[in-house]
Structure formats: structure tokens, C-alpha cells
Specification:
Chain lengths: 334, 308
Amino acid sequence: MKLRSNLVFLAVLAVFGALSPLIDGLDSHTLLGVAIPQIDAINPYYYDILISIGINVILAVSLNLVNGYTGQFSLGHAGFMAVGAYTSAWITLQSAESGPGLFLLSLLAGGLVAAATGFAVGVPSLRLRGDYLAIVTLGFNEIIRGAIQNADFLGAQRGLGGMIKHTDFFITYACAALTVLVVHNLVHSTYGRGFVATNDDEIAAEACGIPTTRYKITAFVVAALFAGIAGGLYAHFKLYLHPDGFGFMRSMDIVVMVVLGGMGSMVGVCLAAAFLTILPELLRYASHLEFLPVWLRHVAENRMIFYSLILIMVMLLRPQGLLNFKSGTSRQST
Amino acid sequence: MVEFIQQILNGLAQGGIYALIALGYTMVYGILRFINFAHGDVFMLGAFAGAYAGPFVLRLNGGAPSYTVAGFTLVLAMFGCALIGMLIERLCYKPLRHQPKITVLITAIGVSLLLENGGQLLFGADPKSFPELITDRALDLPASWGALSVLTVTLSQVIVLAVTGLLLLLLIFFVRRTRTGLAMRALSFNPVAAQLAGVNLNHTIAITFGLGSALAGAAGILISIQQPSIDPLMGINSGLKAFIAAVLGGIGNLQGAVLGGIVIGLLEALVVGYGSPTYRDPIVFAVLIVILLFRPAGILGRITPEKV
């Protein structure tokens, strides 16, 4: 099981590595005596969407570990993303000409600081359940945002800019593949049965001697780690950070991906992350189509209406998730 | 000292509004044990109901602002919000009554997002000005109050406090003295036994949603009289604060919701008055987290052990 998923991971990495010159573009040079022609990068608009999909996959898959497999409801994932983004940006901004080495280091540091924040947030709040946990994580998200708003060295309300574009196709998708691998292996290991047990019936799991609180905190810390890495990628891709970009709405975006994909379904969540990243672009395109009625074009301009309708309809008609084709296991949480 | 009393006064007026919204959260939680995330947006709809009904009522009165106009608009908005609240319950929450709580929670978040963004589409995203239903003015305090006579007390603050108090008394009378109130209390105490004793579950839940939403609608009008600029996202912040107030006081407990609302209102006013407005929201959330960690049932709530 482990060996197979690790081999798949390496194969996927190799594919991404082979694809990356086609997407990122390549200068003409000679390699081992062979002249390699120049390759143009793909259209920047599609490139932007492609990288955003990768970042969203990392965010959604990591949140799925908490909200899906472990059955806790966290509404503050954007807070951890913000921690990672600002940490990583602050590190690379310390040197005038930051190289790729420093960038990788800053990604790791961003992830670690986010994980530490996740630990600090998780230890007190994971004693709470259901609705209360949701509201407390939301509260921490707002507190993190508030802290950044008041931190002058992070740009406060002006936002933080001046980063160098380091994020490319390969690093984004390598991180996404790593997230999928880690979450998959974690949940499907002997140790990881504890996450699912916590989700299925917390009281019964506790009675069997499973340390549910430790599992919940582990899930939270791992999720925060990857959210931090996603934040670092985001910071060196968009090159401008503002505290308002990491509020409740951003967290909701990630939750919608997880719910739509099906809580606890890896493939579904990845598909949903990709779909919901492309959807606003499709809607923007639709809002310019002349033949559509004006009101429909108005609705298309406002993607959040779609999101909310999708959420309600999915919960009413298909609570296991729209893109979750696995049936059987009922994901209940008390 | 005078400045301190002034902050307390501003805090009380804001706290009264939080208390009205918090009552809706607490009543629904008491019976259904779930957080109606969309409640803050019903408050926003109340303000918009007033903004659309207000000019109409004003015209009936020949265009002159008066207490009657404000009162009539208030009743209209409360009625409209009660209908909307009951409709939301019937369409979105009732089909999910036997589903896991997380499903209902996500649905409630969905309804909340729908109302916010539907509101932006219908009413426009930019702030709208609320019609002048009552001519707001600063009251002249009698000189015999000494140093206190320099306080700024506006008519709207007095109205907010008076109406909040009146609605609270009416609600407490309703819950304590009527048959429907008895049914509500019975359901929150033990739903199965209450139904066996002949309480109509669906009926009572609908009335609870109606009552809570009407109070939120009233709060929407009251805040718009104080600060006459409304927008479709105004419910998010006030809704969250009111929810925190309900948890602070002990969710499921009516007196607790009022107490919590006033405490949050005072806290905010003091933070803004003596600290910085940017610290207001983080501090309120920090208070919520501290309360949940050390006294999860709130100030007035009692802890119920989880049963299998």
C-alpha cells in the first residue's frame, strides 16, 4: 500500500517535471551537447488559473484531513494560509535578490510556523465540538487577521508587496502531490485509522482507548502545515498580500471545495478544487455573452450566489458530496 | 469620568441591539441545538425591509417623520422578517431535521451566503441610506445633573434602549405565560417527552423561528435609526457579535443572551474608546475563546453531560 502510493507519487512528480518546461517555458540552451530550442510559456491567463488550481488543491486536501477524515469542522483555514504566506514573504523580503534556495527554505518555514500556530490554536479549541469548534476556528482566523492588520512590519493595512515571482508550475504541483501523498498515507496507515474512528464515533473511539484529542490535534497541525506552504506559494505567485484576502470568505471557499468534493473523498476534493477555481472564470466568460438574458449575466457575475446555492442543494440532496462517487460509509459526526 | 459614562452609554445602546439578535440564536439553539448562521442576515433583511417600507409609510403620513411612522415601519419589518425566518426553516432546515448536525450547519452557512450575495444582487453592493423615520437629535440634559449634563445622549439611543426593553418584556411574558411559550420550554427541556404530551413540534419550531427573526428584524430597524447607512453585508459582523453574546451569556438561556449582548456592547465601546478600533474584533473573539475554554456553558448556562 505504502510502497505503491510512494511509487505513484514519484511517477506523478516525473510527469510534472517533464511537463514543466512546456508550461513554464524554457530558454534555449545546450544540454549534454544537444541544442534545446526555446519553448514559450503558456498563455499567462491559463497559467494563472493552473497555478491557482494547484494552490487550492493543497488547501482543500489539507482541510479535508480535518473536516473530512477526522470529522471536525474548521472554518479558519485561511488563517493558517495567511501565517504561511506572511512568514514566507517576510523571509524572502529580507534579502534583496532572493534565490530559489531561500524560497524553498521560506516555504518550509512558512509551513512550520503555520503548523506551530495550528498547534497553538488546536490544543485549546479541539476540546470543543461541532458548532463551537467551527465558531472558535473562525474566531482564530479573525484574530490572526487582526494581528496582521496591526503588525507594521508585515505592512498592516497597506498590504505586503515586493516579493519576487518564484512559484512555478513544477513546485506548485510537486507540493500538491506531496500533500495528497502525505494525507493519503496518513489516513490509510495503521496509525491513521484513528482519524476515521474519531470521525465515525468519538465516544466509542475514546472508549476503545483511542486518544481522539491527540488525533484531532495531529490532523489540525498537518493541515495547518500544508495550508502554510500553500500560503507561501500564493505569496510568491500573486506578489502582493493583504490581510483582507485571508478572511472568513477565503476560509469558506476552501470549505465549499471540501463539502462539494465530498468530505473524506480525496479524488472528489481535488476535482472540486479544480472545478471551483475554473468556475468563476467560466462565469466571468458567461457574463459577457450577449445572448444570455441580463439577469442571468448578473447572477453569473456573482459567483458566491452559485457557491451558496450549491452548498444548500448538496446538503439537501447529496450530503455525501457532489463528486464523491464512493457510497456506503456514512460520515456522521455528533 | 464623564467620558467613561459616555462610553458606557454608547455601549448600552449597541449592546441592546446585540441582545435582540442574540435572543434569536439562543431560542433556536434551545430547541434545535444548532446555530442558525443565517440569523445575522435576517437582521440585515430587517434593515432593508425598513428601507423599502419606510418611504411608503412616510408618504402615508404626508412625508413627516414621527413616532407613528417609525413604529409602523418597525412592525412591518418584524412581520416580514418573521415570514422570511419561517420560510428558511421550512425550506432548508426542516428536511434535514434527522441529519447529522454538521449537515445542518453547512446548510445554514449556505443560506447565510445566499442571503448576503442575493442581497448584493438585489439591493446593490454599495451602502444605502436609510430613510429618516424619526428626526434624531441630541437631548438637552437638565443643568441640575451637574457634570453629567455635558453627556451626549441622542434620541435614537433612548429609543433603542426603550424598544429593546419593551420587546424583551413582551418576549419573557410570551415564553413564561402563554401555552405556546410553555410548549417551547417543554421542547427545549425534552423534545420526545414534550411531543408525547401533545406538543406540536413543527408548529412550535416555526413559531420559534418567527419570533427570533422578528426580533432580528426589529434590531435591523433600530440600528438603522442610529446609523442610517445599510449594506447587504452588515449582518455578518453584527450576527457574529450577537452569536458571541449568546454563547457568552449561556446559549439556550434568554436572560443570558441579553446579559451577553450588553457585555459585548460595553466591551466594544470601551475598546474603541480607550484602545484602537482595529483591536475591537480580535478582542471580542478572544473573549469568546476564553469563555468557551473556561466556562463552555457561558455565564448563566449550565453544563449538560454528553449522553450516548
